[in-house]
Design a protein that fits this description.
Helix content is 26%, strand content 23%. By secondary structure, it is α+β, with helices and mostly antiparallel strands. It has 2 domains: 41-72; 80-187, minor pseudopilin epsh domain (minor pseudopilin epsh fold, 3-Layer(bab) Sandwich). Strands 1, 2, 3, 4 and 6 form a 5-stranded antiparallel sheet that branches. Strands 5-7-8-9 form a 4-stranded antiparallel sheet, covered by helices on one side. A hairpin with a 2-residue loop joins strand 7 (163-169) and strand 8. The chain is elongated, with a radius of gyration of 41 Å.
Amino acid sequence: MPISAPGNKNGGHTNRHPGLAPVSVVPCVPAKAGTRSGLPPSRERNSAGFTLIELMIVVVVIALASAVAVLALPDPRGRVLDEGARFAVRVRAARDGAIVEARPTSVWVTPRGYGFDRWEAGRWIAIDDKPLRATEWGRGTTVAVPERSRVTFDTTGAADRPVTIPLLRERARATVTIYPDGTVNVDG
């Protein structure tokens, strides 16, 4: 039986061997001379890769996105207002400790750091509990206080005197104020 004969039912494009499934034959279109894909030469040139201009645009977009990401990152040292808030919370905890333990407590502040003391056996003893341990100010923070300034909280939580502690870092500023009634406020 001929494989392709004019007038066959399927146009002569099927396999007619017994026991085998029919297979369609797809005619092949030869590629044009000088091209690999059979596309016109102008289309083939465009699909071959990226142009230098396209690559430069991608590099510029990546550079701009990187710059935006770097500028959006927070300062690894934290904000000076956050440092002031941490200090204020610790001062409030020391004040509360003076009330709860019925024992005077003090906070001392120097240009390098701060710490807390408890009045025991007629003298000030450093508090060694983790939240009230002596702490240095963060890197780059400047505190405008005399060499050592101390505020004492009595057993009612009142402070012996009002104190204002300014914290500065570059152009940022936070002020922690301890009032005579023992309240603590942070302004930034």
